[in-house]
Amino acid sequence: MIRPGAIALVLVALTVQVSAEQALAKPGTPGAAYFARSYDRVGRDGAGALLNDQVTIAPFGDGLEIAACAGRDSVLSFGPAFEIVNLLSGQRGPAQIACLFHNNGYSRPILTCQAEDGAAFTLWPLDEGQETPC
Asked: DSSP per residue over the chain, as a string?
């Protein structure tokens, strides 16, 4: 017979394990270094204003940081849904954000993002030397 306390202990252990693994890239998913580059960002912000600028993605801990000329824009990590291997989620200011990524014909990442405040944009990778300085 399994005691109720043992079930609770197993559930706590599984929760800790899932939480610890949540920020890491999933098996078969590229790590944070794959995304490190500059991107054109086209879309709209949470207020509905057009976004047409450049951002840079850099590894940030086990996740990613999106930075625009004005500073940090978003912080993303892999997950949390383990079965969706191309999902990044995190914060864009006070709003939650989710991005799906795939790659173009040159095996460079393209991200499509949507935040709970209504912001929605796509990030296209730039070739080396196409960046515009702030």
From this structure: ---HHHHHHHHHHHHHHHHHHTTSPPTTS--GGGG-EEEEEEEE-TTS-EEEEEEEEEEETTEEEEEETTEEEEEEEE-S-TT-TTEEEEEETTEEEEEEEEE-TTS-EEEEEEETTS-EEEEEEPPTT-PPP-
Residue 43: closest CA among 129, 110, 91: 110
**Domain definitions of the chain by residue range:** 4-125
Total residues belonging to the chain: 134
| Residue carrying structure tokens 């196409």 | 130
User: What confidence category does residue 10 fall into, taking pLDDT thresholds of 50, 70 and 90?
Assistant: very low
Fold of 4-125: Lipocalin (2.40.128)
Alpha-carbon gap, residue 22 to 17, rounded angstroms: 9
Question: What average pLDDT score do residues 69-97 get?
Answer: 88
pTM above threshold 0.70: yes
